[in-house]
Design goal:
The complex is a heterodimer of chains A (393) and B (266). Chain A is α+β, with helices and mostly antiparallel strands and 393 residues long. Chain A has two domains: 66 residues, no CATH class; 318 residues, Cytochrome-c3 Hydrogenase, chain B (Orthogonal Bundle). Chain A has 14 helices and eleven strands. In chain A, the strands form four sheets. Chain A has a three-stranded antiparallel sheet. In chain A, strand 4 and strand 5 form a beta hairpin. The longest helix of chain A is centred in the middle third of the chain and has 29 residues. The radius of gyration of chain A is 24 Å and the shape is globular. The termini of chain A are far apart. Chain B is of the alpha/beta class. Chain B folds into two domains: 139 residues, NADH:ubiquinone oxidoreductase Nqo5 subunit (Beta Polymerase, domain 2); 82 residues. Chain B has a five-stranded mixed sheet with strand order 2-3-6-5-4. A two-stranded parallel sheet of chain B has the order 7-8. Classes of the chains: A alpha+beta (393), B alpha/beta (266).
């Protein structure tokens, strides 16, 4: 048929209602046109409001452009009008799944500028809380990633555990999502009676449950087919973009702040960083599961080594950071969090730049999407773990 | 499953001290480096703006430095001088880092800097954010518009110190003490507060008066209602039942038996 219709070029001209569509044929094939598809901002797989504008050639994504800013709440500006005590409550909120790790970063930055020594016990408890927060965060993504691929069961399992962990963290912090447990110079208060027993028990439960997740998802044929070899990221590209966290570890780069620049008492603990080498969706997910085990190891080390003593320093009523600038990084559940704090000696920061892991990770997403199939998009977006609040701040 | 353990890894011997990095940069790019400071164990290198990409490229490609990791970029309001842009580069191999600080050319009016997107792909969004927040134009950037975080038709550069936080302008500080010791925004607050305090007192007084008046009115209404009810009950026989009936209907039902009695009394 193509031989009988020699045309010189052009595009498909869709006919009106009831008319036939005229089709252009060139070089023995159909002349096609790229299609523009808008995904989001409201889409269940975007964990918030992320919009991705993609151009499609058939089923293949030619160009992808993430559009962010739908959740921009101006935290950096707000921080300049809040004192350090208030900022700790503020930074809880941009990444609602890593609240404790975020507030820890601010406290560390202020403490470094003030050259404060934090009591030993407070530092150990900070590690304990960070690791539980990491597990909480990863459970969320384990559940949601399964959900996005069509498996409903994992999310019920992971939320069952999240509930248990949240309830005993609540007994110490008073919060379920926004803990606000850190203070400049220590912690809000000591752990309540029975907390460590609950923590020990939960750690043992979590260890057995983590194997359940492995069996539930990793062995699944559909899960493997949809994730193996999908959205493979090269290590040099990842590093060039500043990608961190599980997404980076899946590419084989073991860059982890707890290893390279240990804060609190991570230098006294044996930190394990699970690494995979393929960099695809499957590896990213396996790293997530392995990180839970690694965090449980750390939690058990804290249970054994937790020293007695105060958890707080006597602080003046108003905290003023001396003039200067410093950059503090922490290993947040989703990657490296950073605070660049510039102080003019006042009660509020002159400038507080939040370097959030999701921002850099999402920036890299077009590299993974371009050239892959539209149907793989969800498996890719869901495995580059991010929180939109963390992207937009 | 491969795992990297902190007990088995140690800081690489190739890791350079901040002072060594400063010396290396100053030696290789004497025309670019204007000052180096080490504070809290961190190195900040002040760079001539036009040489910023060269300095970054050197940090990335020089074997001893090998800063392959683009960490972050932060605009900082530098008052009358304009705006600083601080870029943090990090080496995943050697585990050392540098903060490159450049003062944008053009002061506060038209701040410009050469783009780093040619050196690090990760600089793209960070530069777009600095443009969005401070209005710093990065020459050679593939596309700063549309604005990355704020809405497209947003006016002004939100993180500049002369851009006031509108919530703080409209609404006074909720606490008793306003955090001061800041320049423009705090001054505006401090200036705004007494002005706000005055009318708020007056408003309070006015609100009290209005409330008292309303209460009086209500009491008067109630009294009038009661009177009307009493009259209706008393003058049941005279009868303006059409008026009283719908109002007192519910309560009066029980009294329905009374009416004849009252009528008898009258």
């Amino acid at each position: 048929m193509s031989e009988t219709l020699p045309h010189e070029g052009g595009v498909i001209l869709p006919g009106g209602p009831g008319e036939a569509m005229s089709v252009e044929i060139r070089d023995g094939g159909l002349v096609t046109q790229e299609m523009n598809l808008n995904i989001g901002p409201q889409h269940p797989a975007t964990h918030g409001v992320l919009r991705v504008v993609i151009d499609l050639d058939g089923e293949v994504i030619v160009r992808a452009r993430p559009v962010i800013g739908y959740m921009h709440r101006g935290f950096e500006k707000l921080a300049e009008a809040r004192d350090y005590r208030q900022i700790i409550a503020l930074v809880n909120r941009h990444d609602w799944l890593s609240a404790f790790c975020n507030e820890l970063g601010v406290a560390l930055a202020v403490e470094r500028l003030m050259e404060l020594e934090v009591p030993e016990r407070a530092q150990w408890i900070r590690v304990l809380m960070s690791e539980w927060n990491r597990i909480l965060n990863h459970l969320m993504f384990i559940g949601s990633f399964g959900l996005e691929l069509g498996a409903i069961t994992p999310v019920f399992f992971s939320f069952r555990e999240r509930e248990d962990i949240q309830s005993f963290l609540e007994s110490a912090t008073g919060g379920r999502l926004h803990f606000t447990y850190t203070r400049v110079g220590g912690l809000k208060e000591d752990l309540p009676a029975g907390f460590l027993d609950a923590s020990r028990q939960m750690a043992a439960t979590m260890r057995s449950r983590n194997d359940e997740y492995r069996q539930l998802l990793l062995g699944n044929e559909i899960f493997q087919a949809r994730t193996k070899g999908v959205g493979a990221l090269a290590p040099d590209v990842a590093v060039d973009y500043g990608v961190t966290g599980p997404t980076l570890h899946a590419t084989g780069v073991a860059e982890d702040v707890r290893l390279s620049e240990p804060y609190c008492v991570y230098d006294e603990l044996d930190v394990k960083v699970p690494v995979r080498t393929n960099g695809d969706s499957y590896d990213r997910f396996v790293v997530l599961l392995d990180r839970i085990d690694a965090s449980l190891d750390l939690i058990e080390q804290v249970h054994e080594g937790l020293p007695a003593g105060p958890v707080n320093r006597k602080m003046p009523k108003t905290v003023k950071a001396p003039e200067g600038a410093t950059y503090v990084r922490t290993e947040n559940p989703l990657g490296q969090g950073g605070y660049y704090l510039v102080s003019d000696g006042g009660k509020t920061p002159w400038r507080m730049r939040m370097r959030t892991p999701s921002f850099s990770n999402i920036q890299m997403v077009p590299e993974l999407l371009e050239g892959s199939l539209l149907s793989d998009m969800i498996a890719i977006l869901g495995s580059v773990y991010f929180v939109v609040g963390d992207v937009d701040r | 499953m491969p795992t990297v353990r902190s007990s088995e890894t140690s800081p690489p011997a190739t890791r350079l001290a901040p002072e060594a990095i400063a010396a290396l940069l100053a030696e290789r790019l004497p025309e670019a480096v204007t000052a180096t400071t080490v504070a809290h164990g961190q190195l900040t290198v002040d760079v001539v703006p036009e040489h910023l990409p060269r300095a970054a490229a050197l940090c990335k490609r020089e074997k001893a430095l090998a800063m392959d990791f683009f960490d972050m970029m932060a605009g900082v309001d530098a008052g009358e001088d304009g705006f600083h842009v601080v870029t943090r580069l990090y080496s995943t191999r050697h585990r050392h880092a540098v903060l490159l600080r450049a003062l944008a050319e053009g002061g506060r009016e038209a701040p410009r800097l050469p783009s780093l997107t040619g050196v690090y792909r990760g600089a793209n969004w960070h530069e777009r954010e600095a443009y969005d927040m401070y209005g710093i134009v990065f020459d050679g950037h593939p596309g700063l518009e549309p604005r990355i975080l704020t809405v497209e038709n947003f006016e002004g550069w939100p993180l500049r110190k002369d851009f006031l936080l509108t919530t703080r302008e409209i609404k006074p500080w909720p606490g008793e003490k306003v955090p001061k010791a800041k320049e423009e925004p705090a001054k505006a607050d401090a200036g705004g507060e007494p002005a706000d305090e005055g009318p708020s007192e007056e408003e309070k007084a006015a609100a009290k008066k209005a409330k008292a008046e309303r209460a009086k009115q209500k009491a008067a209404e109630m009294r009038a209602k009661k009177r009307a009810q009493r009259e209706a009950e008393a003058g049941g026989a005279q009868g303006s039942p059409g008026e009283a009936a719908p109002e007192a209907g519910g309560e009066g039902r029980g009294g329905g038996g009374d009416e004849p009695g009252k009528g008898e009394g009258a």
